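Q: Got a minute? One more chain.
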Amino acid sequence: MENRVKKDIVCKTEICTEVDSNLWNNNLKKSNYSTFFQTAEFQNSNLEDIIPIFINIIDKNNDIVGQLGLRIINTTVMYSSSIFKRFSSIIPKITRRIIWIYGPIIHSEKPEERKIILIKILDAVNKVVEDYDVVHIEAQTAPYDLLIDEDYKEVFQNYGYSTTDFCSYIANLSISVNDLWLNISKKTRGDVTRAKRREIVIKNVESYNEIDDFINLNKEWAKTKGLIITDPEKEKEMLWKNHKNGIEKIFLAYKEKKLISGLRIGVFNKIAYTNFVINSYKDPTNLGGTLLTWNALEWAKNNDYHIFDFSGGPLDGVDSLLAYKKKWGGKQYIQYNFIKINKRFSYLIYKKFFKILKLYHRKRSL
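A: Always. Here it is, folded:
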């Protein structure tokens, strides 16, 4: 029976490093859970030492029935440090990994078809692992893919992936702005009100030069962690490119003409995602980030977005992290984090090295 289903559903698999962005993204939009994480623009971000990979599963009618955008990452060079640079020559040998976020995208609601398409996608991922000598894979499903069931997860397990339960907090934007406001915790509403009284000014980034303020604030944050941004100009170019391509919005909060907070949100398919919020350490109680998040939520509602994803973390993770996400009134949705180790010795070295690096950065930030 399964062989017949395979023949009917899947005709061929395409694996490539370049795609027509419009065509790829338009196919993504056939699904109501595709986000900016799976867009061609996100995969092609050249801030890191990456290779973008696009997987298409095609049926006998030449229709796309499955998609996965992933990135092969040799190192993380947006943030670096002197200790990190000493090991730069060996890093790619132990850190070459595949990462994908909020995927795969399967254009079918039938459980058996979804399973067959998923198998084809994971076969393609295995081919990429072999071709690029990948140490390990880190993958995360979309929390709004409500059709993921035990059979779906079992496919990953059969391919050697371990599973960790994650969660994300998501606001349904079909309700009114007033209802969104009332869903937020009482303390957070008070913080937003206090921020407005402090005459904090919110600005939506619209020009290339306005990104400089955000980059400088990011540098300030990185410095407190013992890090440096290795190529600020390259980061600026990436942020501007994402802005022009329409997959990110940047909001800035100023007090007395000084930038105190910044917020990046990913935007695609009428889904907004809290990508990165940062505050000035010079004024840790400035409330700029809180006001920015409410402003972004209002912006998404007023621009007819359907979902605002505040992001999340491991289901059994740090309570303070999840509490911050939860206070915005979003409903908790379960998602799954999958890891597959292809080279165990290299992976163990990778984990030990970055544990030491993490401790070093934590010490520098005290």
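A: Residues 105 and 182 are 33 Å apart (CA to CA).
Q: Perfect, thanks.
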